[in-house]
């Protein structure tokens, strides 16, 4: 896992899905046509997106 994702997981209150997590493949296909994201995030609070 990239360092940036590790730091995000420490501060983010919403759900974070990374490669290898359950549901990652299905969610990645929903958002990305080509390639694969390092993380898929589902913010829970306004602070998660600021």
Task: Describe the protein's architecture and organization.
The structure is a single chain. The chain has 50 residues and is α+β, with helices and mostly antiparallel strands. It has one domain (3-49). The chain contains two helices and two strands. It has helices at residues 3-11, 24-31; strands at residues 15-17, 40-42. A two-stranded antiparallel sheet has the order 1-2. The longest helix has 9 residues, at 3-11. The mean pLDDT is 86.
Largest sheet: spatial strand order: 1-2
Order of helices and strands: HEHE
What structural class is derived from the secondary structure elements?
alpha+beta
Q: What percentage of the residues does DSSP assign to strands (E)?
A: 5-15%
Mean pLDDT: 86
The helix tally amounts to 2
- Terminal Cα span: 22 Å
Reported for the largest beta sheet, the result is:
2 strands, antiparallel
List the keywords:
50 residues, two-stranded antiparallel sheet, 2 helices
In short:
This protein is an alpha+beta fold and 50 residues long. It has helices at residues 3-11, 24-31; strands spanning 15-17, 40-42.
Please write out the topology.
Elements (H helix, E strand, L loop, with lengths): L2 H9 L3 E3 L6 H8 L8 E3 L8
Antiparallel strand pairs: 1-2
């Amino acid at each position: 896992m990239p360092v940036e994702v590790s730091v995000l997981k420490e501060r983010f209150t919403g759900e974070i899905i990374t490669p290898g997590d359950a549901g990652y493949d299905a969610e990645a296909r929903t958002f990305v046509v080509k390639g694969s994201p390092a993380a898929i995030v589902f913010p829970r609070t306004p602070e998660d997106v600021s």
